[in-house]
Amino acid sequence: MNFIKALNSVWRENNTLLCIGLDPDPAKFPAHLQHRPDAIFEFCRAIVDATADLVCCFKPQIAYFAARRAEDQLEALIEHIHIRHPATPVILDAKRGDIGSTAEQYAIEAFERFQADAVTINPYMGRDSIEPYLAYRDKGIILLCRTSNPGGSDLQFLDVGGEKLYERVARLVSKEWDVNGQCALVVGATFPSEIARVRTLIGDMPLLVPGIGAQGGDIETTVRAGCTPSGVGLIINSSRAILYAGKGEDYANTARGVAEATRNAINFHR
Fold first, then answer.
1. What do you get for the CA distance between the two ends of the chain, in Å?
2. pLDDT at residue 82 above 90?
3. pLDDT tens across 26-41, in order?
4. What is the dihedral of CA 226, 93, 241, 28, to 10 degrees?
5. DSSP 213-249
6. Residue 240: other Cβ atoms inside 10 A
7. Model confidence pLDDT, tens digit, residues 250-260
């Protein structure tokens, strides 16, 4: 799967900019899943199957699987998505950042072991830390730019030669690093003015936007700040607000209802 082509296709076919983050916390699972050895896979699978027609991507966060020795369930989940919902790209949220042979191993992990269509990367070790991922030309490389957490300002807002550090990242990625047309940037919904600024710097490059829902980002300002003139360009992520909307055995249907309402709210402002 070519990530950027698949993303453009699913934006049109599903008429959605919504991404669901898969952050499985067994402590929050419905009672009927508690203590099942495959609970993480089963919880996420039900959410995926209930919402696949409403999203442009799924984004499993690797730490939620690795912390519970459930990498095998992550592999099974991504395989399930590819088989049952082959048009929907999978972003592995890993935020890796290292150089040389270590970065090569992380790229193998994301794209060969887990078969992800895209991966999130920390760019702060520079271009050579990104190049092993760029070698996978059909895959998406999504680099942190202006993150949704309050502490992001500690570094990302520093002045570097007359521009903010996050602006330098946006410019470097869009003008110099994106040699194969496979890159995207992370900019949080909690900072709509920075979304707008990044959009002016990068043109139509996709933006992965976390921070709506539980983190409090506003949908209308996010969409107005970040959409391209054609009404796409955004991967707007919601995780906890959708995943844990329901507590009983019908949790997946409840999650679908919240996902549909979120998708509709995003589309209303496009």
1. 27
2. yes
3. 999 999 999 899 999 9
4. -170
5. GGG-B-HHHHHHHH--TTS--EEEEE-HHHHTS--ST
6. 14
7. 999 999 999 99
The pLDDT, as a whole number, for residue 127 is 94
pLDDT digits (tens, 9 = 90+) for 89-142: 999 999 999 998 999 999 999 999 999 999 999 999 999 999 999 999 999 999
Taking the C-alpha atoms of residue 23 and residue 240, their distance in angstroms, rounded to an integer, is: 7
201 and 171 in contact (C-beta within 8 Å)?
yes
Catalytic residue among 59, 95, 164, 247: 95
Cα-based distances in Å from 87 to 7, 90, 226: 9, 10, 24
Look up residue 70 and give its two tokens.
Answer: 């459930």
pLDDT at position 233 over 70: yes
Classify strands 163-164 and 159-160 as parallel, antiparallel or unpaired.
Answer: antiparallel
Q: Which amino acid is at 167?
A: E
CB 99 within 8 A of CB 111: no
Residue 217 pLDDT: 76
Q: Can you tell me the distance from the alpha carbon of 135 to that of 218, in angstroms, rounded to the nearest whole number?
A: 36
Catalytic residue at 28?
Answer: no
Burial of 213 (0-12, 13-18, 19+ CB in 10 A): buried
Beta carbons within 10 angstroms of residue 241's beta carbon: 17
Report pTM.
0.96
Contact 46, 7 (CB under 8 A): no
Query: Which domains are delineated in the chain?
Result: 3-268 (3.20.20.70)
Task: Find the DSSP H helices in 52-191.
Answer: 62-66, 71-84, 100-108, 131-134, 153-156, 165-172
**Worst-scoring range by mean pLDDT, 53-62, 103-112, 136-145, 149-158?**
149-158
